[in-house]
Amino acid sequence: MTASTANHLWSLDDVLGQGATASVYKARNKKTGELVAVKVFNLVSYNRPYEVQMREFEVLQRLNHVNIVKLFAVEEMHMNPKQKVLVMEFCSGGSLLNLLEEPEHAFGLPESEFLIVLQCVVQGMNHLRENAVVHRDIKPGNIMRQVSEDGRSVYKLTDFGAARELEDDEKFVSIYGTEEYLHPDMYERAVLKKPQQKAYGVSVDLWSIGVTFYHAATGSLPFIPYGGPRRNKKIMYKITTEKPEGAIAGVQKVEDGPIEWSYRLPHCCQLSEGLNSQLVPVLASILEANQEKCWGFVQFFAATTDILHGITVHIFSLQQATTHSIYIHFHNTLSIFFEDVQAQTGIEPAAQHYLFQGHPLILEPSMKVVNLPPTTPDRPIILISRRPEKLVGYSYRERKDTINVFLFFCLVPQCQFYVQPFVYKIADEMEAVARELQNNNNMIERYCMVFSREYFIYSQNMFFLCVCRKSFEI
Predict the structure, then answer these.
(1) Is the overall model pTM greater than 0.70, yes or no?
(2) Which residues form the Protein kinase domain (predicted)?
């Protein structure tokens, strides 16, 4: 069964989404065949006041931004001219919620994808605030994903049915939104049905953004009462309103049991410690029920822009077998960089020695971060401590087989292999070490693929092995 307007045609089976007042379908332009999304309003929608019905049209017509789903036209149903249809941009990647529901994202998005979500949502929200618009229903299901030809994601805010004009110093009293993402003050009235006439400001969007970012980073909601948010609504309200300052999550694991508060993202999420340390203060400051303590959009935009505009330096700590991402501004000096490395690895600046692509990297505290070579997760700067460090990055099997030799194998144009004995070399001995490594390269190369299969290590660009000294007879 099909439906149409003068310019577009769609099947009623091609449903992209359904809400209380409308359904969204995948449609095609009758002349060009171009894919679009059409939002068709139902009878419930027309029971609303006329100015409310027109609000979404008017808001979308004012907005024009790459991170907001574009409105192409407002048309009329072919068989019912009074029934309005919004013709909008079609997003091929579904919603952020669809992405989070995929098994590989059970513990949240990879860091690179999360940063794209962060950037797109921040830029989209900035455009809304520039146009004095409050969304009032931000959630992963209302963030669409467009996939470009090069495979990169672009996220776009959609569903402006609850949106309205609102300046920073104005308030509203009407209730919209989705339970799990609602600001506690709105939750109290909309879900618990308490007859309070509180006025709400633009900060309600910040709370929803905080829950959405936490969900994207971890794969789960931040506030979960025993039995779930929809079954235990009073405890849900208690968690969000009694949250200690600085906490970003609260979970009740046992019926009538205590709330377990979290002040950092869970270890199972895919974000690095560097991003974690910068994101947590933002979440703690916007997931704040007290509107006097909650950040405003000015602070939010400043903090998130600070994260997005910094340089990411990828570090591999050789002895610890751990990877690290250092988020830092390019105008900072390397003394700040050394301190950030110490904060994540525990290695003091005086003990830090660096290699990059097989060569010593001479770094002075007075140098600028911009002088560091560009890095990627597969081409990190190698950090070697001049002091013994505790092994933290190995599995049980790898620890068991370790005696005292580190093999670092890096696939660069001229394959270079580095063996770092447990006897730590001082700077003056680097030349002697280089000769020793060169003598062992041919022998190491023969063993590399054997050990990679044995330890199940398959990386296109880089892998790290910890093997026993006996194997190489050094």
Answers:
(1) yes
(2) 10-317
